[in-house]
Structure formats: structure tokens, C-alpha cells
Please model this.
Amino acid sequence: MQALLLLADGRFPAGGHAHSAGVEAAVADGRVTDVATLAAFAEGRLRSVGLVDAAVAMATVSRLARPLDGDAARAVLARLDAEVDARTPAAPLRAASRRLGRQLLRVAARCWPSPLLDLAGAPGPDPHQAVAFGLVGAASAMRVDDVGHLAVHHAVTTPMQAGVRLLGLDPFAVAAATAALAEIAAAVVAEAARHAAGPLGDLPARSATLVDIAAMAHAGTDGRLFAT
Model:
């Protein structure tokens, strides 16, 4: 439980404070203007990227819970990472996901030292954030469902908190809007769980095309507050 609370805390130094999950671009082009439109954006992210991230994170922790030698575990991680690559068409978002994965593993290695955390990125690229969530979940002995809830929590709170900073919204109203998404979030985790133990190629592949397009434009914008 302590691991779940720490990882869900926005003060945990995993790098998420530097990302808006597409909200900065949405604010710039007028798609997000107030609490209602911010909540609608977060719900859309929850049902698309949130579902994919939760399923990948849960698939990761469930597979690493089995006894595997180093080579077998690295092969599983490489396959999971490739599945995330295939589901992330925008290059800036792939790069951001790997940066967030690297930062999460750096701090997790200090909190929950484990040989599992040494498997990622050696050799090879830094793991995607969803894979890193699963790795950290396995290293800290979290339950599979808890890892799914953690991934969904970040999918929602990252854009919601960015909206507060970008638009100067009432944080109480944003917190209430976030709480109102709880039932949808629970359903997303339940759906992700149905896929997590199945073939990796059958993991959800939902995307948000407009967010992907906006991410590529945002990456070249001068004076942006957030990396994504």
C-alpha cells in the first residue's frame, strides 16, 4: 500500500510535473478553455491512452511476477516495449514516454532496490512509462490491479493538474471534476485487466489522433511551459 500511495503522489519525483499530456496544445488551439472542457479532455485520454497504459502496465507486472531468468525477462520487456511503440504513432510522445520511464526507474531504484529494475534499458532503449510502471509494481510487490489503477490515476491527474497551471482554474473545482471520473476510471481498469493476461498483440490499441497531431506541432513551439 505504501508503494501505491508514494507512486500516486504528485510530489513523487518521477518527472510528470513537466508534462501536460496534451493539454497545453489543447489550450493553445481553444479545445480546452474551462473546467468542463478540461474534464472532457481527461475523460477522452482516460478511455484511450489510459486504457492502453493500464493494460500494458498490468501485463508487465503480471508477467514479471512469474520466475524468469534474466534473458527471458528481457525478452518479455522488449516485446512489451515494442507493443507500446506500435501504439504511440507520434515521435515526440514516444520520446517523452521513454524519458518518463527512465525517470520513474531512477527514483524507484532508490526506493525499492531490485534486480528487476536493472533489466530495463540494459542493453536497449529506456522503457516506456507504462512498462516502467509494471516493472516498479513488480519490484515493490504491488498487486496487478493496483498497478492498473496507478496508471489510470496518472492518465487523469497529469492533464487535470496542468489545466490548473495553464488556465488558472479553481483547484477545488478541478479536484471535484477529477473525482467525478472515478467510476469511468474503475471501468477502464476492469477492461484493461481483461486484456492483461492475454496475448500481447491483443492489448488495447486505442489512440487520440488529434492529440497525436497536436503533439508534433507542440514539440516545435517556442516558449512552451510543458514538454508535452
Q: What stands out?
A: The domain at 2-6+17-215 is CATH 1.10.4190.10 (Urease accessory protein UreF). The CA atoms of residues 3 and 140 lie 6 Å apart. The mean pLDDT is 89.
